[in-house]
Write a structure and sequence with these properties.
- The chain is an alpha+beta fold and 808 residues long.
């Protein structure tokens, strides 16, 4: 900005009041205000991002504010917003339509209010110290409120978290220093029970104190020249609205192809040491047997053995092995004919053996890093370009007709031995950049790679570790977790925390990866509880790990019946699940959502965190407890207020339960309580062996009577990015009105490739207020149409652009 432009924009006047000798200066900028207080050695820049977000950057007087593109976690900074300023004798007041921040002119301490709460002086956040420096750290401290609860902040290594309510805890979310510290979700964003959230726009080593020693603070550790306090305060009417604003700020989660929501199975455990090592023939035989048994499958996860030069974890290279896969093109065609897509893995340790690798890609000072000759500096643009290109040329180029629909990026969370003082290729220190590495991987493979290659299929990139903002490109899984109840319970919490941190398509090795101490995978009991039941109600269903095979036909025969039960249930519920996945993309509200997101005003919602809502209407209680001598587990859970239906049996026989109570159940390994709220509309489709075989011209609606309800059904072409790039998707609004005795299915809005023109709709009314079937009348676009009476409801055929109304 030129000096003349600065002068024109500047207010540059010492404020004339009782504290004028403090020489606080307020300067209007193009996009906000600068408040300077030399006597405090403090500068604060205040900007608005829409009506619900205010950003405050704080530095010392000798520092220069980072440019907006210093980090790319915030997707874009050009937000339409009006930020007003006024001064009083006591405050400097900056406000949007919905949020106000007031600075004390003597200290520059800030306090925050929502505009609709100003009349009763409801300050929801108040600073004690705006910026404190100590050794190599900077910190900000806020007034502590013993009643305030916190959640979010990504998750720790292996998704292990003691609870969703972080109040009273000191939490760090950083890249590990040891190889054993896997899969951190580094998201310096948290939500408060006061309906606000804070995002710290920094990748420095962080430390959050949510009430230990009655202290509420944020601390960044690094080197002062590279440390700046940059916070976004976000408000909303509820926590869902706050989460939605965060997603607008850092980017919408990238929606996977529908096949990624089907069952995923791998060849882990069938490596070169196995009596049944995998190759192309093994896959085809395994899949054929699986399908002949009537079991569904959508996605095959190819571990090391697809790779050339031996197919071992750290002794192979990124290329198809021509012995085990003599014709990858034919293999791809076979997979597509069978409704299957495929993941290809990359272990960091094979980088040095892969075509085009250069030693210059490595980090400096690699001596202490495991697999040190394959230890890339992720800030090195040449490495990132190579990384995408080798995947493209060896696995994804359409001209090659090779299989490849998803990328599995492993072991990039194990480079923490690089000294914090290491200067990286982009000129910054490892102390600042290591938390950012996962973002750079995701950006390289998707934004700079997949998107630019115009593959016309959606990317699914999962990395063992992730960073805030990278949800717009990729997702993560939770690492090599143990097959035990400890890690199962932590996975339930980690899944919810990932959803609260804008990673709704989070995955894990359902059933646990491996027990190294006892050299085993999950036993048949845990396999049923976790790999099957809870796995089927995870965003990504991927039983995977070493030891015993996770394929159901390879297990004890007693697991087949529960496997078929949960597989059938998940695939029938696919329109419900896929609509929730779309909702997560558009709004950030996750598929598996913490009770506190739906019922934040209830203390039990913050306490009972081994259960969760599955989409808008279903409540799921995984059986995560060990069995007694009789083979039964005892599970305690909280049922929120209202009328609920226990749908563990056929929906037509669902029993009603009044909520607002804690219940206890004795469960067999295959049992998992599932409840539907009164007023729920749950769309389903007939069972199919692949999501690609599901008939979209048929729709089943289970309507749970007792309360009003609604549902928005999302549909698209299931595969291409047209839903995102061209808004090619359709929504159907479905409304149930209890008092009017009416169900309305509104016309579909929007279009997509191969959208059916008509659909047969079956409606099942469930509950104490279900209508007499013979008295139901149907009108389509206002004209009476005959109905077909079925066992639990009615069915009819209508065009997708017609309005259908059922009355009785």
């Amino acid at each position: 900005m030129s000096l003349m432009r600065w002068v024109i924009l500047s207010l540059a006047v010492l404020l004339n009041c009782a504290w004028a000798n403090q020489a606080v200066q307020v300067t209007q900028l193009d996009n906000g205000y600068l408040v300077s207080a030399p006597q405090l050695n403090l500068q604060r820049k205040i900007r608005a991002y829409g009506d619900d977000i205010i950003r405050i950057q704080s530095i010392t007087t000798e520092q220069v504010f980072f440019a907006d593109d210093h980090y790319l976690m915030v997707e874009q900074h050009n937000w339409p917003a009006e930020l007003s300023f006024k001064q009083t004798d006591q405050q400097l007041i900056f406000a949007t339509a919905n949020i106000q921040v007031s600075l004390d002119p003597l200290t520059l301490q800030a306090q925050f209010q929502q505009i609709n709460n100003i009349d009763n002086s409801a300050v929801f956040l108040q600073e004690i110290t705006p910026l404190t420096q100590a050794n190599q750290s900077i910190s900000t401290q806020f007034k502590f409120d013993k009643n305030e609860k916190f959640t979010g902040l990504g998750h720790g290594f292996y998704a292990r978290n003691s609870g969703l309510n972080l109040a009273g805890q000191i939490i760090e979310r950083n890249y590990g220093s040891e190889p054993i510290e896997q899969a951190p979700l580094i998201v310096p964003f948290y939500l408060s029970s006061k309906n606000y959230a804070m995002f710290v726009n920094s990748m420095q080593q962080n430390r959050f104190n949510f009430g230990a020693n009655q202290t509420y603070s944020i601390e960044l550790n690094g080197y002062r020249s590279e440390s700046q306090m940059d916070i976004f305060v976000i408000v909303g009417d509820d926590l869902k609205a706050v989460l939605n604003q965060y997603v607008k700020l850092t980017g919408k989660p990238r929606l996977p192809a529908k096949s990624m929501f089907g069952l995923q199975l791998s060849d882990k455990g069938h490596d070169h040491n196995s009596p049944t090592p995998s190759d192309q023939n093994w896959w085809q035989q395994q899949i054929t047997q699986h399908r002949k048994a009537g079991l569904p499958l959508d996605h095959v996860v190819n571990d090391n053995r697809w790779r050339a030069a031996g197919g071992k974890r750290c002794e192979s290279k990124l290329a198809w092995d021509k012995d085990r896969y003599p014709n990858p093109s034919e293999y791809k065609d076979w997979l597509e004919q069978n409704g299957l897509t495929l993941t290809l893995d990359f272990n960091r340790c094979i980088a040095q053996y892969s075509e085009g690798w250069q030693k210059s890609f490595n980090l400096p000072f690699i001596e202490e890093i495991e697999f040190r000759n394959s230890a890339p500096d992720l800030t090195n643009g040449d490495f990132r370009q190579w990384f995408w290109q080798i995947f493209f040329t060896q696995a994804l180029d359409p001209k090659l007709n090779y299989p490849g629909d998803a990328l599995w990026i492993d072991e990039f969370d194990e480079q923490g031995a690089a000294p914090l003082t290491t200067k990286l290729a982009n000129g910054h220190l490892s102390a600042e950049m290591r938390n950012y590495w996962f973002f750079l991987i995701a950006q390289a493979l998707v934004k700079d790679g997949w998107d630019s290659a115009n593959l016309n299929k959606r990317p699914f990139v999962w990395v063992r570790g992730m960073t805030a903002g990278a949800q717009r490109y990729a997702t993560l899984w939770s690492g090599d977790i143990y097959p035990n109840y400890y890690d199962m319970q932590h996975s339930i919490r980690g899944m919810q925390l990932a959803g609260l941190s804008a990673f709704p398509y989070w995955g894990h090795d359902a059933g646990g990866f491996y027990d190294w101490q006892n050299n085993k995978g999950p036993d048949d009991v845990l396999y049923q509880q976790w790999a099957l039941a809870m796995g089927a109600f995870s965003p990504i269903w991927k039983p995977h790990g070493m030891g015993e095979s996770r394929w159901p036909l390879d297990r004890n025969q007693q697991v087949l019946a529960p496997f078929k039960h949960y597989a059938k249930l998940r695939y029938q519920l696919m329109p419900y699940l896929y609509s929730a996945a779309h909702q997560a993309h558009h709004t950030g509200v996750p598929i598996a959502r913490a009770m506190l997101l739906e019922y934040p005003e209830y203390a039990q919602a913050w306490q009972y965190d081994l259960q969760y809502m599955w989409g808008d209407n279903l409540l799921v209680v995984p059986n995560s407890q060990p069995a007694d001598k009789m083979g039964m587990s005892t599970v305690n859970f909280w049922l929120p207020p209202g009328l609920w239906y226990d749908i563990n049996t056929d929906s037509s026989a669902a029993k009603t339960i009044e909520g607002d109570k804690v219940l206890q159940r004795k469960l067999l390994p295959a049992q998992m309580p599932i409840f539907a709220k009164a007023g729920s509309i749950v769309p389903k489709r007939p069972y199919a062996l692949s999501t690609q075989f599901i008939d979209k011209s048929q729709l089943i609606l289970d309507v749970y009577t007792g309360e009003d309800g609604q549902f928005v059904l999302y549909e698209d072409d299931d595969k291409t990015p047209a839903y995102r790039l061209e808004n090619q998707y359709a929504t159907s609004f479905i409304l149930y009105q209890e008092s009017l005795q009416r169900l309305t299915i509104h016309p579909s809005l929007g279009v997509y490739l191969n959208m059916p023109e008509q659909r047969q709709i079956s409606v099942n009314f469930v509950g104490i207020n279900q209508p007499p079937i013979e008295q139901i009348k149907l009108t389509v676009n206002g004209k009476a149409v005959p109905l077909k009476i079925e066992e639990n409801g009615v069915s009819f055929v209508a065009d997708v652009n017609e309005k259908a109304v059922l009355r009785w």
